[in-house]
Amino acid sequence: MIDLQQCYFFEKLNSDEIRELEKISKKVSYTKGSILFYEKEEPDSLILLIEGVVKIYKTDLKNNEVIMRRFRAPTLVAEMATFEGIPFPASASFETDGTVIMIDFEQFKKRFMDKPDIAYTIIRSLSKKVKNLEEVIDLNIVLDTTARLAKYLYENKAVLDELKNYQIAEDLHMTPETLSRTLKKFSVLGLLEKGSNGYEIMNLEGLRVLFE
Fold first, then answer.
1. How far is residue 91's CA from residue 15's CA, in Å, rounded to a whole number?
2. pLDDT digits (tens, 9 = 90+) for 25-44
3. Which of 27, 109, 114, 158 is deepest in the core (most CB within 10 A)?
4. Which of 148, 190, 151 is nearest to 173 (CA)?
5. CA-closest candidate to residue 92, choices 53, 37, 171
6. Do both 52 and 127 map to the same domain?
7. 160: containing domain
8. Residue 187 CA to its chain's centroid (Å)
9. Are 6 and 13 in contact (CB under 8 A)?
10. Do residues 187 and 121 both lie within one domain?
């Protein structure tokens, strides 16, 4: 049984609507490292991530992964491509074990897209993705290395506990060596403190000053 009503996307649907949605949905579990979809693959389902962490990435000419974004449950993944009927613009794989609900998009469109609550929730999700894109542009084009890391830490306060340094470097499109030097600089400035389990933020407002 898929407990869709526990997902905030569908919490306002009634019991009959939930049963109807369950008929066009399937739950799929993945292990760490599994591919969710490949770039240029044609989407046919609305993908709802309900457990785990998914990274969205592209592969450069040297076959290196360029991380575009990480998504944590619960969230829709790559819904823009599904709505537009275009191939996925990047690939996605699991960084942890995880679970998604695959919803047949053609059936979903016919039966649910005219419901105001559903439409509003999807608009909110798309708006969030636009904001994410703006953040990526801001971090990787507008700001220098110091300001980029400061803004990233300020807006993602738990990231030092959640991600390894190489993953933070991937998010910021900088080398691990550059990240390490910048973290040390922040420590000298008293913005961070290094302990046995890594760095901890000590001066949040001090970080904000570096990117505003």
1. 35
2. 999 999 999 999 999 999 99
3. 27
4. 148
5. 37
6. yes
7. 143-211
8. 28
9. no
10. no
